[in-house]
Structure prediction request, 112 residues.
Amino acid sequence: MDTFTKSYIGTALWSSTDSSDHPLDCNYDTDDISPECMKQMIEDCRAFQKTAGDMIAGREERAGHDFWLTRNGHGTGFWDGGWIQHGDKLTGISKAYGSVDLYVGDDGKIYC
Prediction:
């Protein structure tokens, strides 16, 4: 798994909560993500990176983090920090993917 995708998934777990309002990364990790959700996350990351191209080159870890935050409207992301030249364009690309909510299923797996 590439740096961008690892960062995206880590941010997703850090910023999402379970039914007790605890961050998912307190009790779950990537092994707990359902295969369907993991597949979708990887596909979204791959497609975003292809579209963003050179705009994120050399900053893949930060870009994965900001992709999750921006697409889900967390109030921070590409538009507000360190992406001066391409922030607006990267924000637009992110928003085109729509938002994603993670939740824990009855089987203890994380779903999108």
Remarks:
- Residues 3-111 form one domain.
- The first helix runs from residue 3 to 15.
- The two ends are 19 Å apart (CA to CA).
